[in-house]
Write the structure tokens for this entry.
Amino acid sequence: NKVTINQIDERSYNDRQKEMTVYAEKEYGVNLHFYEGSAILDGYDTNTDYGLNGFIYGDDDIYIRYDDTLSESVIERVLLHEGTHKLIAENPEGYKKLRNTLKQLAFNWDALVKEYSSKDMYGDIYDDVSDIEEEIIVDICCGRLTGQWTNSPTKALDALFEFYNETSHVMYSQESNFYKKDTLLLDSETSE
């Protein structure tokens, strides 16, 4: 799909944007770019903000919305979301294992698929249920979905640790509401 954006010139990146580009290259092997305003999919009204805050283009480029409508933590979460799509593409077997575990542990997987298939979510973008399921898994991974678990949230957390340890250095900590994403850490700041 063609996407229209108002790209920010990388020569004008602030320190945080520069730091995030280094992180994205190191963790995900991608070039990170920023844009202002909502990205617009081809055929959609250009005067509407659809909340498309990030996307992957090709194999090596992630685009993230960076403007005053999003907080720094939301921008980081969008990077984690898009970066997780990249990791899934690189580790399909690890993803399959993670997906199967999380599907088994979710209270009502079918309800999540139905919600994500609505036009307000991803129903206009994807026709294939496997794409919808990937968005659910990615939102679980980046902390957008919490509290969806049976009485075994530790198994879900273990599955997340295993997937990320195979592919990345993103750190997680367990809390009463399943888990939360810690701040983005560069390798030099981790205690591995």
